[in-house]
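Intended use. Records like the one below are meant for learning the mapping from a protein sequence to its folded structure. Do not use them to infer anything beyond what is encoded.
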Amino acid sequence: MSDASQGEAASPTASRPPIDERIQKTLDRALYASGSPRAQNVRNFLNGVWLGEPLHAVLTDIPTGAWSLTALCDLLELAAGDERFGFAADLCLTVGLAGAAAAAASGLADWSDVDPPARRTGLYHGLLNLSAMGLYTTSLVLRRRKLRGKGRLCAAAGFCAMTVASRLGGDMVYKHRIGVDRTSGEEFPEKFTAVLAASRLPEDTLVRADYKGAAIVLVRRGERILAISGTCSHAGAPLIEGKLKDNSVVCPWHSSRFCLETGKVLDGPAVHPQPCLEAREHYGQIEVRRAQTHS
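Structure written out for the chain above:
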């Protein structure tokens, strides 16, 4: 055996996946490996399927606002020497910890489905937020032991950690588009427009059509034709590669499930519904138009 071969054989860690991938897979197995309806319901709740928006984005406002008020009240207590500001600072700190715990739970649920390169950014974002929680918890303990000066220093360090974490969270949204609706901006016809020959749409089969670059998924069910956007709103996956399940389609990347009749999210991690289209067979062509809303 050559020296090079020996070196390769002695380096089993060379092919090991990166640490963020290993942590993510471990987390996913621990939380969702059972595949039970209860586990999926918990996941749907933490993702924000019921809300129609990412729950994490809503919950992060609680610690950010509360800990910002903590910093302000700490400064006012120092400047005025008024214990009432100290009481307010401690109260805001406690509220922030409660909100941070809820935000961490929803953030972990979201991060379990984040792909590279945002996955590594998300790991740093989460670790910094956990560090902030640890510093604020230490600050609260010190305050209750009448060590307010040291408690303020821990809170100041926690505020710095939270600020950097928030910056990384912004990168995930605005740079990597995590949590945004990937179907936003897609253009569909307002009037019935032919997109596919009717002969190319067999029964109970996912078939792709296109309109001005936007993918459409079509399914024939007896005399009915169902149609939704073919781009998953969660991460942009091609739904045409997914699985047909009753009157729904399951995303091939992260197993989000959408109703073909309404576009509604049935299972996360997606939270934004799919644009839904009306479809008909007319003179040997499949025609679609954007679903009409009635007030």
